[in-house]
Design a protein that fits this description.
mainly beta, Jelly Rolls, seven-stranded antiparallel sheet, 9 strands, about 0% helix
């Protein structure tokens, strides 16, 4: 049995690159994707960016705001938002903190799984639901930092 610790005392104090007021801790990383916990303090920002991987942002405590494409919504504990591949998305808080579990699936490779990536279920080889890229790494995600963005909707960037 393997137990992975996350939460207070286990997070990176600086959060992912480009964020403000965010701490994070990866719970699991492999060729299929990433599971991480993120804690956003009041007035925290995950700036608008794109990601080539399908991602679920699952709020487990508190609440804040999320953006997907041109849509902005309030989100709170017990709700999840899907960040589709290659669509600009963001998250932020105002007066309250928010804690979320982020589940990111690696983009399927164009060539399909290698023999070592095939799964065996009851003796039969089956393809993984989300095969890894050919080099076994997540598809890189370049950050997009907004420059001089002013928003009447109180977006913090």
């Amino acid at each position: 049995m393997e137990i992975r610790r996350f939460g207070v005392g286990h997070r990176r104090p600086d959060g992912p690159p480009g964020t403000r007021g965010v701490e994070g801790q990866q719970i699991h990383v492999d060729a299929r994707g990433v599971i991480a916990e993120m804690a956003l303090r009041p007035h925290a920002v995950i700036p608008p960016h794109t990601n080539p991987n399908l991602t679920y942002f699952v709020v487990v405590e508190g609440g804040g705001f999320v953006r997907v494409g041109d849509e902005t919504a309030r989100i709170s504990a017990g709700e999840a938002v899907v960040w589709p591949p290659d669509v600009v998305h963001a998250a932020w808080t105002e007066l309250t903190p928010m804690r979320a579990i982020v589940v990111e699936f690696a983009r399927p490779s164009a060539t399909g799984p290698t023999a070592s990536e095939a799964l065996l279920i009851e003796g039969e080889a089956v393809e993984p639901a989300v095969p890894a890229p050919a080099d076994g790494a997540l598809v890189p995600k370049p950050p997009i930092y907004p420059g001089g963005h002013k928003s009447p909707e109180r977006e913090p960037w």
